[in-house]
Structures are given as C-alpha cells and as structure tokens.
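In response to the reviewer comment on reproducibility (Comment 2.3), we provide here a single inverse folding case reported in full, input and output, so that an independent group could reproduce the run without further information from us. The structure tokens appear first.
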C-alpha cells in the first residue's frame, strides 16, 4: 500500500467531506433538520461556538477512512468505483449511527433519521468518488 497516495487521497476526501457537509447540512438541510429534531434541547452549537479544529479533523478522518479502505482492501482507483463504494459506505455508516442514536436519544425525529441516512449516502458517494479519482491519478491506462 502506498502510504503517501493514501494520505493524499484521504486529505482530499476530507476536504471534500467538509465542504459537502457544509452544503448538504449547513445549507440544503439546515431548516429541515431543525424542524425535525427530537425533544433534546441545546444540542446544536451556534456558528459562533463551533469547534472548528474538531470539525475539520473529523472530516479529514472520514477521508482517511475511505482512503484506507479503498487502498488497503478494495483497490479502488476510479471515480465511478469510488462513487458506488462510497455511497454504500456512507449509507451503512449513516444508518449505523442514526439508528443507534434514534434508539438511545432524543436528538432527531424518525423522519430526520431517514433523510440523514440518505444524505450520508450522497456524501459518501461524493467523498468516495474523489478518493477513488485521486487514487487513480498518475496510473497508466
């Protein structure tokens, strides 16, 4: 496994995860998620109180996770293979997290759980596509 390639594609995936999350959750789904939150209060931080280093590092870790899986076990090095594998990973990880949180907390309503799982699949596809594409850079056809 090429560690340098894994880190480069992982960081690229993390940057894309950050911006895709901002677009999907921060812009497109912001009002929907607020309207479909559970009974828990004070859960979301206002923008002024965001812990940016943690958010950025979390997204980089997401990119590196995809890159590690793609490089170590799946040998994914194309945009299309990354899109499909990323969608599956996003779907499964989103469902795992959201259903567990729904079962143990009052953070979101069931409607929001299903939407969040779909959003995780879309984000996973985007991140996976970028990671796969970067993995394939420089390879001869």
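Designed residues, in position order:
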């Amino acid at each position: 496994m090429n560690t340098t390639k894994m880190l480069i594609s992982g960081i690229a995936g993390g940057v894309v995860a950050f911006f895709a999350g901002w677009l999907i959750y921060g812009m497109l789904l912001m009002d929907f998620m607020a309207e479909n939150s559970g009974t828990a209060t004070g859960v979301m931080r206002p923008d002024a109180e965001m812990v940016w280093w943690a958010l950025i590092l979390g997204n980089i870790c997401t990119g590196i996770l995809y890159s590690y899986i793609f490089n170590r076990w799946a040998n994914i090095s194309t945009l299309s293979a990354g899109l499909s594998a990323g969608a599956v990973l996003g779907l499964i990880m989103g469902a795992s997290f959201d259903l567990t949180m729904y079962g143990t907390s009052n953070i979101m309503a069931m409607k929001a759980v299903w939407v969040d799982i779909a959003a995780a699949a879309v984000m996973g596809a985007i991140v996976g596509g970028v990671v796969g594409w970067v993995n394939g850079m420089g390879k001869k056809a």
